[in-house]
TrEMBL record:
Domain PLAT: 968-1090
Identification of the protein by name: DENN/MADD domain containing 5B
Location in the cell: Membrane
SUPFAM superfamilies: Lipase/lipooxygenase domain (PLAT/LH2 domain) (SSF49723), RUN domain-like (SSF140741)
SMART domains, sorted: dDENN, DENN, RUN, uDENN
Protein family according to the UniProt entry: Belongs to the RAB6IP1 family.
Species: Maylandia zebra (zebra mbuna)
Record-linked InterPro entries: cDENN_dom, dDENN_dom, DEN5A/B, DENN_C, PLAT/LH2_dom, PLAT/LH2_dom_sf, PLAT_RAB6IP1, Run_dom
Positions with biased composition (Low complexity): 432-446
Gene Ontology CC annotations of this record: membrane
Amino acid sequence: MSGTSAGSAAAPCRFAHYFVICGIDTETGLEPDELAALHRWLEADRQGRDPDTASAGENFEQSPLKRTFKSKVLARYPENVEWNPFDQDAVNMLCMPKGLSFRTQADQREPQFHSFIITKEDGSRTYGFVHTFYEEVTSPQICSAMQTLYQMHNAEQTNAASSSSSSSSSMDSLASSLDDGYSPTSSSSSSLSRAAGSYDSSRDTLYVSKALCLITPMPFMHACRRFLAQMHSAVIAATAPPLPLESYVYNILYEVPLPALGRSLKFHGIYEPIVCQRPGPGELPLADFPLAEAFSLLGVENLVQVFTCTLLEMQILLYSQDYQRLMTVAEGITTLLFPFQWQHVYVPILPASLLHFLDAPVPYLMGLQSKEGTDRSKLELPQEANLCFVDIDNHSIELPEDFPQFPNKTEFIQELTEVLLSFGFSANTGAPPRTRSSPGSTSSTPGRERKSATLRQLEDDGRNGNLAGEELVVLELLQGNATLERLQALTKRTGVTVARVEALRAGVKGQPTDGGNQTGGEEEELRKAKLNVQLREVFASRFTTMFADYESFVIQSAPDLESWLTNREQMHNFDKASFLSDQPEPYLPFLSHFIETQMFATFIDNKIMSQWEEKEPMLHVFDTRIDKARLYNIRAPSLRSSCYQRCSILKESAQAIEQRLMKIDHTAIHPHLLDMKIGQGKYEQGFFPKLQTEVLNTGPSNNKWCHKATTAQRRKDRHRQQTEHLTLDNDLKEKYMQEARSLGKNLRQPKLSDLSPAVIAQTNWKFVEGLLKECRMKTKRMLVEKMGREAVELGHGEASITGLEENTLIASLCDLLERIWSHGLQVKQGKSALWSHLLHYQAREEMLAQQADSPAPRFLERRKSDSSIAMPSLRVSLIQDMRHIQSMSEIKTDVGRARAWIRLSLEKKLLSQHLKQLLSRQALTKKLYKRYAFLRCEEEKEQFLFHLLSLNAVDYFCFTSVFTTIMIPYRVVIIPIKKLSNAMTTSNPWVCVSGELGDSGIMQIPKNVLEMTFDSAFRPHTHISAIFKCQNLGKLTTVQLGHDNAGLLAKWLVDCVMVRNEITGHTYRFPCGRWLGKGVDDGSLERVLIGELVLPSGEDDSARACRTPPLQRSPSQGRRISITSLTGRDTKLNSAQIQEGIGEAVNNIIKHFHKPEKERGSLTVLLCGENSLVAALEQFFHHGFKSARLFQKTVFVWDFVEKAVAYMESADQVGDLQETTEAMKMTCQSLCHYFNAINSTSRNIGKDGKFQLLVCLGARDRLLPQWLPLLVECPVILQMYEDTAMLRDPSTLNTLISVLETLHDFSITLEASLVKGINL
């Protein structure tokens, strides 16, 4: 569908371009299929054998009746069409994907129909419709050649019986499953196999396949199918057709026009008329493949899941025995993408010779023919990490992991089900989708059981739509059986009747092919057409709803087309962040992935180009629908709702089709006698005659519509030549467009004409270049989004990245690495190519380590941290990181392990280094990969690793934030200040580490864990160190440190606490610089410390200069020491600086709440860290504070609060507060209540800790601004503050109160570590 307009705009409007006959060339005789030989060459190359010897000679092991022989295009009419050159190799290969097929009278010889598609390099499409039947072989040379081959085969079988060979490659099963070798499924059928699988020229009649094909510019599937079926009926009928066959071929090639837009057309087949119609300019584009059949084959839910995979541009592999089923499902899915178009490799029928294309490291939609009885579990595919496997015949699918659901999926499926039921189709939703996350995702049913199960489904399962030729086989088996009625009802659904089947078998009557009742056939066609359009409207309606406001987010920054095309790669065309922020929350997982796809980028490109060029037809239809929806449904773009909106135009869309089909707009010229030589092409029943080339190669010269079309074409060409010099040169434009649209666009269809190894190598080279370009674009995007400055220049409003966007980009990077590791792969274990390589590397390294008799693998580095004096170095080892992942029981699959390993390496800034190390084992890489693989292209590999190295410039927490439930070991090191205190303590210390995801609980540190390290000057340093394991805490925020004050050496002056995540290596420093002990400092036995992330010392100043500040790192905190303590005098600030500090602290809290909830980071840092609200208010309270020491006793701000509260309580008892207002009384009581609750806590948090708690609780409960005037009015202030103190200046105080009141708009939640033990 995505290219339906191709060929119709530029080409004259003929219904069909070519009529083609493919089959055996009796002059050249039996030739082994070159493509099968090429396939053997590729297989041998993959397995490391000599490809030239493997592909030479014939394959005598296989039964000759099952071998592939070369088919040829026997005739085509006309010889060539100027606007659509004939591609002989491609047409021959797709008409007969398996080559010639031979049968004897003992075999089934039912005719088959299938269609195919050829996608050209510019994206335009040509459709082929093929009717294959069996014709008796009359050439004695061919019969005797087949006899000789049988004798050689029997001799080979006798020799091979004694010896058996086993396969060596882990991926041979892909080839064998597609090999058409004869293998009986059970012992009971062995006698049948001898009869059906042998040939003796004296007693058997030999038949060979022949294909009749129509090649058309548009997918008129039903019309072509009926024409070809009538053509075959004429051949096997007992009486000759009314006119020579040339008349009918000439008629459809030259006298039947394409229907005009919005019109219907009737033309005449051999026995009855055929009707087709074309949608109007405002309707959905033409799609004639039966969607009901696609839904029947897969079930509604499965089809929606496959559709979602297609939208997200995953690799989709369809698998079926029937070529037409592959085509029906592929075309059905791409049809439903409107207004988007599939931009990548699209091969609905993949010939056996193109199996190497499954290696393609790009998104693809391909169809693979399965062999009867093949078990899916034996089918090994080159890459499965991002693969959606669709087993059409068994109605089942396997989905990739981490798969986002389509928005409103349940309601969507419900609406589709109702449409199907309204047309009488079963709404059975098929087998449930199997995802790759479960280890037993592939069925282990033995082949025979599976086959019988499938047969049972064919007998009584309502999901089966059109069964092509198989229904006839089943009918034959069940003649006279009670099941016949049910099967008859089933086949009727497809417009086939048992009467027709019998007539075809007898070959006597030559009656119309679609049953006797002509109106019944037309009614059925009308019903299918109405169902098709209604199903498509439901899908289109979803996109109209989801993207109703997309135009508001398109960024149109270029002044003209040329400058836009030139700078396309640097342009920021769509404001993704704003668009996502405008969407309902449930839509985000899907939409954040979808707006990164190539199909969405191309859609936006078309929108921007529509300013300068004619609007692309599908975009025009979509925009018209959005405008229409706006008229009826006026809503503000910001008010997005996830409420499901049903499609409202189902009835009118069906009526438009009904009107066209009921009232035919145009009837083509009837077939008529041609000016032919008499006596040629004599009718002979059962044989397709040799048609007269002279009459079929040239069309009429006086055809009105043909003349009209060519005149219009000439006019168009003249206009284009006139305007060409004014606008951008077409070649230049095409070049820019090819580059602008990513990889895969110019590889949408593998080239079928020339399949030499050189061409295959060239294709793979394009893939390598494409992968490198994609890696460059992805890493640049990740850096730009994260670092900000460049992002602002490119049109982002603000230098920020949401967690959702970041996660999408990292998932996309994981997918890219899997595709790179899958390219050219020849040995794989499990579904993930990257993890498979890592396992091979691990096994090799461990083996080398054992041989060297060393306990640990080599290539270990030590990564220093800034605290290298205190922290032992963390070992940097690829295998160590693998072991961390292997020990995570939460991850069940290889794909999950590979993704977790990538995330961990990225967070540790070791991704490039680890991959370089992995690829340094060149012998291993050569063993695992073919010569053309990306990983064996040295220059590209180096560039790729360099692009990944650039990601080290930013901080990611992509492992910590995703695997939130895993157990992580943390190392805690407590560093004392040795000069001023004991290096050791007799008390029992404890810590409690808190992070964004929770806290560790109180961890007692054993006394005897003193460690000694030496600095660079070999001075010894002693500290306390311990390791504990707990559930992932996320980014660390606070540490509570305390001790029980036991023993003689209880007082302890702590410099800082260091905590390191032993898996990710992230180290946090929690500065303290305070005493813990009774009778020293503020008497605290525990402190809450605020953390900051420590940069690895490997990053020098230049690296730090270009880093993004981590999302929640608190600024490096100097020791926060009481203003009146030992060194406090040096840190006094003036009043202006203090006011500025308060304003900044409040501003930071407000900004915090204006970020999306998932992006906010730690509020504790903003409340209690340095430059925080508590620190700023401490400075305010210390200003003008009388610091005289009475008898060497230090005075703290908490002492002032304590005296003020004591005064209030005594005043309340005496009755001095009676004159105050009720509100003032309440405030007074609240301050006293909070003060007493803090003072009576069992925690020994010291006076500064208590003040910090009072500020935090006051801010949380919106009481802080009310408490300040009470403190100022207490007489105690005169004793403890100088006249110049800011606290005593009314205007400054009022300013402070108004600033603090701005926090009342937000709901402040305090971390549990801060308020533990406080009972309010």
